[in-house]
Amino acid sequence: MLSKKVSEALNKQIELEASSSQFYLAMASWAETQGLNGIAAFLYHHADEERMHMLKLIKFVNERGAHGVVPSLKQPTTIFKSVKSVFDLVLEHEIKVTNEINHLVDICLKEKDYTTHNFLQWYVSEQIEEEALARKIVDKLNLIGNDKGGIYFFDRDLETLASEGGADGGAESNQK
Ligand code: FEO
User: Fold this and answer.
1) Residues 44-88: pLDDT tens digits?
2) Whose CA is nearest to atom 1 of ligand 1?
3) Partner of 94 at 20 to 30 A CA spacing, among 43, 61, 121, 170?
């Protein structure tokens, strides 16, 4: 059985994963309207993964005798300045998620909830992968700058990454 403190913290994380999914979905839709189909595919895929992160938490909370609450969400930003600004936001957001996961781990240790602590290790690994991937993409975009040809090839690269199961960085498959 989860303590009130842990179940509240997990429900907050459910909300964050759900809003991450909406955030990336909005980015994907924007990219698609710009003719950036590879970037859109990558971000649609990323949005699906965040939904999976949310679902995994809901199921865990319910299995442990509490209630995973489906949150209401604010509309995310829908218009973006540039591809670079999209991925700067992705990196910034993933760093925030990592900090929240670390905070959750901390709460579990304080509450002596070793089962949830163990469950959260999957998220700890996932965040390492997701942050590293976002950093790699931002570095690439820094190299490309304003070169339109560069963006064209970048878009193709992300399409390949999305079709290979891209945005999870492999942490999910390592756990199966
Ligand atoms: Fe589920 Fe990318 O945080």
Assistant:
1) 999 999 999 999 999 999 999 999 999 999 999 999 999 999 999
2) 50
3) 61
